[in-house]
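Researcher: Next sequence.
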Amino acid sequence: MSQLHIGKIKQFVNANKNLFNGALFSLFSFINKGLIFLLLLVLANYIGPKEYGYLSFFSTLLTVFGFIIALSSEGYLSFSYFRDAENGISESCSSSVLITLLIGTLLLVIELIWGGKLEPYIHLDTEITCYAILISIFTIYLNLHLNILRVKEKVISFGFLTISNALLNFVLSIFLVSTLVLGWKGRIYANLICGLLFGVISIYYILKKHYLHIPSKYYLKKILLWSLPLIPHSAVTFIRQGLDRYIVEYNYDMMNVGFFSFAMNMANIIVMIGIGFNQSNSVDISKVLGNKLMSCEEKKKVLKIQRHKLLLVYLVLSLIVMISVYFLVPVFLPKYTNAIYMFIILSIQGFLCCFYFLYTNYLFFYSRTKEIMYVTFGSSILHLILSLLLTPFSIYLTCFVYVLSQMFICIFIYIIAKHELIKQLNN
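Model: Next structure:
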């Protein structure tokens, strides 16, 4: 290849750096999510629906502890960097690490003292619950590390860390579940080992880069004011997925919890796709909104094009996932065939979640997290009421509740975000 051609390629790459970086971030996220998807399928061959139900209860705990321990503070790093550069990273990391350490330690103490009394209700013993707390703590540190790499556009490092974690988790899970025949707990032990390993690596990186110190009271307060309203927002996941599993178990049995959880996990592939694209899209949105050289009309035009392109991508990929799972599960995982029609309904909810991602970034950038809290928490209450009323009649009705509540969220977030965006850009 001639020097002229090489030069043109370099020019093209440099001119489209954001596009290439976004594509690579999405690719690494897809590989990660793809391995998770593949793991779900492989594990389903070794554990039955009942064990899958117990594993789903553990996953619910991870989700709950994830947002309780960090108060969603790790998510602020992306926005603080584009406002305060390196100081924003340092203050965000320090505040998030401190919050995580304090709340995580408190939860461990509470679980060790009173955990035994909760076992009959959560269907998990104290040991497993403590593992969930530890995994959540170190996962938050890993997320901080990944957020730093993402905002600083360290694409290769981001990809290596993401895929290494996913691959090790995948191999360990299969080995512990199938080879050592540890059942569903083998998956938990794999999570614990990977969480500790990559959490320690992340803390070392943060220390090495001098991002860790005693956070300023000003910045700590700022992060808390941003993150605290997100607690009810984050609690939606528990109310809508965690409690639903307990409601299903109460009205039916652990076997049906397994079918329902399998269907939910398959539908979450669509949500994972949305999250993967949103990781790069949220950075692009922050760049556009924080660009002082662009006019308001230019910003509106760029953001509109972004939304339309992503919406089309989400629609096409959602259909591909729906068709693939519908035809492949009965062939390769026949014992989970009963979950197929649940999955079809829940897939609609997955697509609506992707639509939701398109607009929440605007509210996050302008620190309008209270609005998100009001909408999502209100919808979760509606979801809980409908789930309690309808689940006794059919699990399929529980699935439709997901669609209705997510539709409620999408409509209101769309209205609020559009209004806020227009207001901010016109000021």
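Model: The chain has two domains: 17-228, 234-427. Residues 234-427 form one domain.
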